[in-house]
Fold this sequence. Notes:
The chain is of the alpha+beta class and about 90 residues long. It is built from three helices and two strands; from the N terminus they run αααββ.
Amino acid sequence: MPSLRPVDCTEQQWKKAAIGIIDLVKQSYETGGITNDLSLVQKLHGQGVKRSRYRHWVFNREGESCFICGSEIEKTVAASRRLYYCPVCQGLDG
Length: 94
């Protein structure tokens, strides 16, 4: 959940986040900045979708459909940073 503070996380959540961060950074490096699911990227690329639209799951996609559930991606600001999320898949209320 985007609103979950680190202090509120379980050890399992910390471990899952740490592994996810390492995997994401590695994939981004190897693909020139693509952080989305690579099989979805191939599908969308094949359909002629622009790179800027399939590069990320939700970042900078406000108003577009979530790749998972189809809900509209929303944007909020947290600590002066833009935060994009799917209200269904990643609701702000834990």
